[in-house]
Amino acid sequence: MKKVLYTFIILSAILGVLAGCGGDSGQAGFGSGDAVPSACGLLEEADVSAAANTSETITESGSDAEDGLFSSCFWQAEESGGNLGLNIWASGSASEGWATEFVKAQAQGGTEQGVDIQPVAGVGDEAYIFLEGNFGSLWWRKDNNYVIALSVIGLEISEEALIELAQKID
């Protein structure tokens, strides 16, 4: 059960790396046309350190698709290897379809592969979270133009802290 969800998060990270082969879009937020803002410009390393309540050194790496329809950024703890990933898809991107379908499936409620998925208020137009220990994701739609995912692997981030990070991005 967890294996399927872990695979899903890893797949989103891989798609992020594969889709992001261009340079920095130079944008620091949403609202500038249809292009996705650079994910790395939406959070600071200090934000991730504070959310994870860690003194480990956090490093950032990311990429943006040349077509402006996708951006990803990953913040990794150097000692433990735990990370937080941020992926943003614009409407019309190649991967946006499955990301939107994931959000729609969560709207139907319940449990996905044995992990309790809950709606989240105060983030985007529609948001869902599953978090179990140091593993999980928060997905949301923004203005019907973007699907955004924050994924945690190996970092101890509370549900409240993950929601606060999402609110900073949103």
Question: What order do the helices and strands come in, and which of them pair?
Answer:
Blueprint: H1 2-19, H2 45-52, E1 58-64, E2 70-77, E3 83-90, H3 96-107, E4 111-112, E5 115-116, E6 118-119, E7 126-132, E8 135-142, E9 146-153, H4 159-169
Antiparallel strand pairs: 1-2, 2-3, 3-9, 4-5, 6-7, 7-8, 8-9
Summarize the entry for a quick read.
With 170 residues, the protein is an alpha+beta fold.
Structural class: alpha+beta
CATH classification class: Alpha Beta
CATH architecture level-2 label: 3-Layer(aba) Sandwich
Strand order of the largest sheet: 1-2-3-9-8-7-6
User: How many strands, which pairing sense, and closed or not: the largest β-sheet?
Assistant: 7 strands, antiparallel
Stated plainly, the CATH topology is called: Protein Transport Mog1p, Chain A
Shape: globular
Q: Which regions have little confidence, pLDDT < 50, spanning 5+ residues?
A: 1-28
Distance between the termini: 30 Å
Instruction: List the secondary-structure elements in sequence, H or E.
Output: HHEEEHEEEEEEH
Average pLDDT over all residues: 76
Based on CA atoms alone, the radius of gyration comes out at 15 Å
Measured as a percent range, the helix fraction is 25-40%
How large is the count of helical segments? 4
Would you count the extended β strands for me? 9
Beta-strand fraction estimate: 25-35%
In total, the number of domains comes to 1
